Amino acid sequence: MTNTNLLKTEIEPELINSFNKKHQCKDLPISSKKELKQIFLEMEPDLISYDVNKCILYIGEITVSGYNGQRGGNFHVGAVKKVAEAFSKFYLIKQDKAIICNNVAKLYPDCKFDEISCHFIVPENSKFIKALGYREKLFKCGIMSLDIIPLSDKTKNTM
Question: Which residues, at least 6 apart from 121, have a Cβ–Cβ distance to it below 8 Å?
């Protein structure tokens, strides 16, 4: 099991940086948890980035739960729970797109976007992805995309 502090201080930032490189976007510089909750109507996404050229706001949920599976198998209860929570959160974000756009515009007038793109982000070789079963359909209905991001050798060893 991964240490939660390492997740927040090392693994999650690496996944965010790799995601931003992949999508050619940059972090929205949100200054506090209060501001984050204000923008996203009490929700706290793990990643908020934007692409000025494409006018896209990227929202991401990251999980390393299930990276090594659970009890010798691929299925992992915590990871599946995170998939369901991410889908629900992204559905609500898309429903409240106009409000969120307005909230971002008030605080970050230089961040203009026409689209919100929601992503469920997991490290490459995460075992639980092999056990998604019917839940894989959640990535095909237009609410969120699955992003599988490679890890550095150092982070793989940490995992």
Answer: 15, 19, 46, 47, 60, 61, 62, 63, 147, 149
Residue 28 burial (CB count, 10 A): 19
pTM for this structure?
Answer: 0.91
pLDDT along the chain (159 residues), means of 10: 66 95 96 94 96 95 88 84 95 96 93 93 90 89 96 85
DSSP state of 70: B
Written as one letter, the residue type at 27 is: D
Fold adopted by 4-158: Trna Endonuclease; Chain: A, domain 1 (3.40.1350)
8 Å CB contact between 87 and 144: yes
